[in-house]
Amino acid sequence: MTNTTTHKTDVVIIGAGPVGLFAVFELGLVDLKCHLIDILPVVGGQCAELYPQKPIYDIPAFPSITGQELTDNLMEQIKPFDPVFHLGQMAIGVEKIGTDENGVDIWQVKTDIGTVIECKCIVISAGGGSFVPKKPPIQGIEEYEGKSVFYSVRDMEKFRNKKIVVAGGGDSALDWANNLAPISKSLTLVHRRDDFRGHPASVNEMRDKVSKDEMSLEIAQIKGLNGKNGNLESILLKHKEKGEYEIPCDMLLPFYGLTMTLGPVKDFGCELHKDTLIKVDTEKFETSIPQIFSIGDINYYSGKLKLILSGFHESALMAQKAFSYCNPDKKLLFQYTTSSSSLQKKLNVK
Ligand code: FAD
């Protein structure tokens, strides 16, 4: 599919994860219009793709909110600013195409299906870059993918009353084993050694459930899959001493981590940290290229924490500087949403 339309806007945001979405809000408050590009067909980044139904406990003022609820709330919050989304497309290049009458550079962002967007500022909020699940090296697994083998959980109901096997030893495997066990017919966690990389609290919860027979633990490797027409019936395991044996399985969830690659963002010309992250300052979160900012998981500065709340803070400071590039002759007034009637007007609450 190709799309040859050229759009014009103030800011192009590359990556519609939680941080890219909140950037629309902060940029909207200073009257900047945004277009967002994301490879995924849905917004929400890791929250929507990797843990939509898991509760997050460290979003300020939300004691508990799932990844999907957070995404939905952000979409509601940015509605007044009418952002334009270009989903299912990868940003593949940025190019300076000139300068305006004030000497501010004009940039062009291109996607892999031919969308071209002209803008004054670019915000790279590409998270871990293009993230793809690491697949287990099991022959014929493709036949079952999307039917009975899944690399993420979009809808927990799909797994209700099923014989589930979760494979892996990290946080995702432990969290999903713990969360799905109560609604499953049976749940087995398979890991190749009795040593888990996940958070100690999740490991303890898993061991507690195993001791109460609420789930099973198999220390083994997955050797093969058995089933028909993409529907699993059992999986073949191999244990060092026990040898090979089968366990029943309707649904297999391998969580062997994600391969994160910066992808095309790596070649945009911004100075990188260890070849995987984009270096920014901590005053305005600008990269080594003026007018190109980077916020969220993809940026690097001393003391960086890859948390959603860090990305939200970065968005607010970035927006102040983006405003000055787009309005070199205007001074930005610092205002509170609680008391500024002009901000309330923009938010359609006045
Ligand atoms: P992302 O969410 O990674 O979104 C980036 C988006 O950019 C993606 O949608 C990607 O498709 C897109 N993209 C990348 N490259 C391109 C390109 N070239 N063109 C177009 N689009 C592109 N954080 C917390 O604060 N609290 C928690 O409790 C918490 N729990 C977590 C649990 C799990 C299992 C995981 C995996 C993460 C957790 N995190 C948590 C981390 C949190 O999800 C990230 O900090 C957050 O998603 C970062 O947001 P982001 O918008 O920077 O990037």
Describe this structure as you would to a colleague.
By secondary structure, this protein is an alpha/beta fold. The chain has two domains: 6-132 and 259-346, FAD/NAD(P)-binding domain (3-Layer(bba) Sandwich); 135-256, FAD/NAD(P)-binding domain (3-Layer(bba) Sandwich), CATH 3.50.50. The protein is 22% helix and 30% strand. The protein is built from seven helices and 23 strands. It has helices at residues 18-29, 45-49, 67-78, 171-180, 200-211, 308-326, 341-346; strands at 6-8, 11-14, 34-38, 55-56, 65-66, 84-87, 91-99, 105-111, 116-119, 121-124, 130-133, 163-167, 186-191, 216-219, 221-228, 231-239, 243-248, 251-254, 258-261, 272-273, 277-279, 292-294, 299-300. Strands 6-3-2-10-22 form a five-stranded parallel sheet, with helices on one face. Strand 15 (221-228) and strand 16 (231-239) form a beta hairpin. Helix 1 runs parallel beside helix 3 (67-78) and helix 4 (171-180) packs parallel to helix 5 (200-211). The longest helix is centred in the C-terminal third of the chain and has 19 residues, at 308-326. The protein is elongated, with a radius of gyration of 23 Å. The model has no long low-confidence stretch (mean pLDDT 94). The structure holds flavin-adenine dinucleotide (FAD). Flavin-adenine dinucleotide binds next to helix 1, strand 3, helix 2, helix 4 and helix 6.
